[in-house]
Amino acid sequence: MTLRAALLVLTTLLAPAAHAQRTPQELAQALQTAARAGDAVAYRNLLAPGGTFTVEGANFAADLTRRVPADVTYTLGDIREQGTQADATLTLVWTRVPGQVSRVTLPVRLMRVGEVWRYAGEAFQPVRTETGTLLALNAPGLAERTAIIAPLLTRAAGEVRNVLGLPVPGDAVVKVYPDSSSLSASVYLSLPPVAGWNEPGEAIKLVLAGGTPAEVEGATLRVLTHEFTHLAVGLAAGAGRDKRIPWWLHEGLANFAARTFVSERGWQAWQSRVNGYARSGWVPLADLADFPAVPENRWDHAYRQGLGVVEFLAETRGREEPWLLAKTFAETGQGDAAAKAVGFASLGALETAARAWLAARGV
Ligand SMILES: [Zn+2]
To answer: Which CATH class is domain 123-237?
Structure first.
């Protein structure tokens, strides 16, 4: 190694320390710079390791590259340092949809590793539960209000087992948010507001519903059962195989499993929407397979058509068939092989038959 090369190596090694974020404000600035540049690697280097946030933070960073939030601002307020950690509020302002400014404030935690501050995601309070881990975002009064959903985790997990025969792991982590804007901003900046969320390796996220205690219970069971299904299906599919299951089928299974907790009126509304799509405006299932590639204005098609195909299989071939279809997708990565496992010549043949059945269904 020449002296010049040695100096270069030395400079490279020292560079991170020289530019390190030595205060929470410098950390906010560094996060903003990485986000605006769509630099997922730089963003990940600013994250604190540990827990489900490690996976969530990496997925958040990956989205920065897919849909660069070129104008995002990161502002920390109310910073309370205590030893090697600090609590603060993080306000994010960005243009998710052209012409429309999004603004979300989240309670967050920062961690100091040596001299360097790192971002550890949202700050939570644990809520007592019989199974798994239930965490409420550290927002005023949310932990107290979340207590009423603690007993529902067991019921929702039991429903997934009843309907699909799949176990929900006892160590599931559920994070509760006060509204869908803050939930989605914690997942990634390009995500429109959603009521629930799950990705392999991440915590389940859900919005605490409003209304009477019965309404809160119903809405929570519906969303929890839906998200637990994603978790159970992903685990049963096997490591790395979850993404072989098309997105529409994932959503179809999740909505199907939550049937018990959907009102009769709500269920009929879902059915009549998919019947309508089957008659006119059906989007090819192949275009609904890869979630990040499906435009937002087609999401409803993925949810409704997915449920419609699952209903078709369950009612005409048997209750076990929807999961068998998904399982074979996971095992083979082949749509035609999956369709053959449930008695169709090809995925196209299955799609045609399902669509005809739905179009003819009078709901
Ligand atoms: Zn879903």
So the answer is: alpha beta
